[in-house]
Structures are given as structure tokens and as C-alpha cells.
Amino acid sequence: MPTTTPAKGKEPLVQDALSGGSNSCTPIPGAHKKRLVKPAQNQKSPFLGCRKKEIASKYANEVYDRLCAYGGETKDEINKSKIIDDGKFFIYVRDLADSVRPGAWLSNSTCEMAIRVLAPELAKQKKHVMPLILAVLFPVLQDLTPDIKQHNGHYYLIVLNLKVERFEVMDSLRAKGNRGLIKDYRYNCGFFMLKAIELWNGRKMTAAIDPSDMPNIRKQSTLKWLEWVDNKIQWQKLLF
Description:
The protein is an alpha+beta fold. Helix content is 29%, strand content 15%. It is built from 7 helices and 8 strands, in the order βββαββααβββαααα.
């Protein structure tokens, strides 16, 4: 087939064989450019999005400080008192104080209680209510160090998003080997998971969770759990 030598900087041209050597030429197709694909929501960083600063009220700070005065190595008899009890599940002062104090791991019992507190709110958002179900949430406790029993493991959230037919993982560590995030969330993964349950709206996180917000999230969560409408304990008499 006769060819035409291209000018410098232009694509080579091939003459149309059916035209009998006419001036009609067809450019040789170039490499196909791949379309940019926007990452799915579950591939994005949990720190991207609308930033909502968490601020604990003066009362929340006061309640938190009084509770944190117990637990640990303190000998006060109040430690043995129930502070949250809905008739089916309860938690003691020591357990709650040791879970919410700065730098403390969230205990299994405190996490279970927190999920019970969130249950009515989740039902209103149709996150697990039939038949208008949007998603099923699976809080997960992973034992990262089975040979070390100094803490309870790592919490994260798996969401079965029925609307888009996929699983979505919300994990404060995000990826193995990311030491920066592991450091920031080493003791806060349980609170991150609980906050993710609140903020996930079926499509995305409605606000970003920042490591600097964790002290206030601990205080807000403590007051929210104590003021739970199903809590039968007069906890103010214990702390004030």
C-alpha cells in the first residue's frame, strides 16, 4: 500500500487503497487514553469531606472530669456501683471510667452498651430496619496481637450497603504499615467506629473525623451514654 511520509510533528498518513491513489488519507489511530475513574466512596480517606469541629459543652466536661476521678487504681466503693443499666445490660463506674479516660482502650462491655444507645437513632435512619433497609452495620473487634492481652484489639466497621450492592469498610487504621494513622488512633479506634456509625448516611460520611476531635468525642459520648433515656440509674447522685 502506498504511504505518505508525514511532516515533522504530524501523524503518519495511509492513502485510501479504494480511492486509487487519491488525496483521501486516513490517520493511523493513536493509543487509547484511559478514562479517569473516580474512586468509590469506600476507597476514599475517612478524613476527606466536610469538617465538623467537635466541641464538648461545659457540662459534658464537668461530668467527664468527675467520672474520670474513679476507675484505675482508685479504691472508692463507687467503682463497684452500676452507672448505666437498662434492665438487660449494665456497666459499672470503674468499667466506664477506664474506657473513656484519655488514652484508654474502649472495653468490650462499654462498646456494646454504646451500640445499644445508638440503636434507636439507627432505626430512625433505616440503617437496619425492614423492609426499607439501606444497610446492615457490622461492628468488628479484631485481635491484632493475640499474644498480648494488655488491650482489647482493634475496632472497625463493615457496612453492607444494599443500595449499591457492596461492602464498605470504615477503619481508622485504613491500611497496614501506615504508622501515622496507627499512632493517632491507637487508643481511639473504638470511638472512631462508633462515630462512623453515627455519621454514615448510606452513601458517605456526613462529616470528617479528625484525630484532634477525639478528646471532645470522648466527653460527648460519655454524657450521651449517661443520659440515655433507658438508663434507670440516677447517675448524677453518684458523680455529684
